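From: lab user (bench 3)
To: helpdesk
Subject: output format question, protein + beta-D-glucopyranose

Hello, I'm new to running complex predictions and I'm not sure whether the block I got back is the full result or only part of it. Here's what I submitted:
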Amino acid sequence: MGVPMKCLIVNPPEKGVEIKDIEIEKPTDKVLKIKILENGICGTDREIVNGLMATSRPPVNVNYMVLGHEAVGQALEDGKFIHKGDLVMPVNRRGCNKCLNCLTGRPDFCETGEFVEAGISGLHGFMREFLYEKEENLILVPKGIEDVAILAQPLSDLEKSLSEILTIQGRMIWTCPEGTYICRKALIIGSGTIGILTSMLLRSNGFQVYVVNRRDATDKEARIFEGIGAHYANIGEDLEVLKTMNLSFDLIFDASGSDAELLSKSIRLVKNNGIIGLFGFPSKGTASISHKDLQTVVFKSLIVVGLINGQRPHFERAMQRLAEWKSVWPDVVKELITGTISIGDSNSVISALQMKKKGEIKVKITWA
Ligand code: BGC
Ligand code: ZN
Ligand code: ZN
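Helpdesk reply: Thanks, we reran it on our side. This is the complete output you should expect:
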């Protein structure tokens, strides 16, 4: 028997989104009932809504999917560790139940590719009134960060990325003489939500941070980057202008997902033993790499790595990180939530899901 509730429904890979009352099947496993309080809107949601995400598909046996992979809700019943009234965040990717990585809680490294992602592929998402969720998929929101807790989901992807970068760079001594990363220079391409969160994360780990985009920083971005001690540059159309500024980097993090061509340009900007992390999903272009650039990869012992999806440990870390940021950078953290739309305002919800507004960092949909 299904439970009737209001949901945001999409039909991937076709475009479109609507708010609808539907019946959602209650799982037979032991689950906790959660009242959704808010959802975050992410670029991936917009790709799905606009029919641009070819890999997005509904759960088996239905031809629609509930959207949403960023959510904070309130537990309506007691579990083992979670108590009635607690605020919780669900983890969005679930394992294939076959490979060792999934069986040990790391479907971010699923071997079979048969994982599912809530609101993205093969599993209903979190933009709905209620969620029935196993306790093992729920992360407790610590007291004091309720207002920004929604950021823990995208931040979990980045905590995972950073931990992967540090693990890979553990192939040598990558820390500076005093044991920190303050001598390491990081370049972040893109100053959207992910670029901003990454700049904060790298700054709180001691890195020197340079953020670039093809335009001037907005006033808000300028305040944020100044607040955390990161540099910002408008590089126009060409990443390689950084070379003329005599800049090269230990880490290049693509948070833009713009042009595949960025790869060869990044290879020319990275230092010996450097690492290039691709986080955005490139949406155009071809990465044609010349033999000279490939030689550089060999001679400089470079690494190019794809970075995706945080899991439980990274969600937990992200929650703690937000608490830390609220205390060290309170004014910066206040800039991050740029809008709140009530689910009752359906026209605004739909248009926010279709298009990013200028100056937006994170917009929430609220259900309370
Ligand atoms: C989510 C990730 C997910 C990725 C790919 C992102 O928007 O935050 O957790 O793995 O999309 O679907
Ligand atoms: Zn996302
Ligand atoms: Zn797996």
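A quick orientation on your result: The mean pLDDT is 96. Let us know if anything else is unclear.
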